[in-house]
């Protein structure tokens, strides 16, 4: 399922999955996917209900836990989001995505050192997980550990040279490290890739280069 799907396409898929769930109410995967599609369609309460039912039917359904946690995080319920990701980790301690999600929750709560530990664990498990490197860059920048922020950002850009967010994060990290020329090059690349660069950052960088 893609973000670009049209509402009409979603309605058709929802109809198909609802029929499967009606005929086979214990079908965990159908409920899981129906929950994902409901979320994509903006039917959040129904998405929660389906994902919770999937977990009730299969208490090892880690993907349902992760996706349900994302919904609660979006709603601002970080306690429930944390609980669900920890539940997934209890089943599979090497689930890198869950470590990233917990890191994001910790960072959101201002527990940046704990967030760094979570992201670091994630990249140890999966060195190619770009979201972990991107978030690690942000956390190191918040901690004013500029060399580490630049290193993490470079890892992200190496993995995905055309990631607009990775380019922007590298530009910011380089700015704080004092490398304004390279910061500008990466900022321009981020803009070229479609990233909406903060105008305040653009002005700050312009001042440094003047």
Give a structural overview.
- With 210 residues, the protein is an all-alpha fold.
- The chain folds into 3 domains: 58 residues, Tetratricopeptide repeat domain (Serine Threonine Protein Phosphatase 5, Tetratricopeptide repeat), CATH 1.25.40; 51 residues, Serine Threonine Protein Phosphatase 5, Tetratricopeptide repeat (Alpha Horseshoe); 83 residues, Tetratricopeptide repeat domain (Serine Threonine Protein Phosphatase 5, Tetratricopeptide repeat), CATH 1.25.40.10.
- 78% of the residues lie in helices and 0% in strands.
- 40% of the residues are buried.
- The model has no long low-confidence stretch (mean pLDDT 95).
- This is Tetratricopeptide TPR_1 repeat-containing protein.
- InterPro entries: CellSynth/LPSAsmb/PSIAsmb, TPR-like_helical_dom_sf, TPR_rpt.
- Keywords: Repeat, TPR repeat.
Provide key terms for this protein:
single chain, 210 residues, mainly alpha, Serine Threonine Protein Phosphatase 5, Tetratricopeptide repeat, 3 domains, 12 helices, elongated
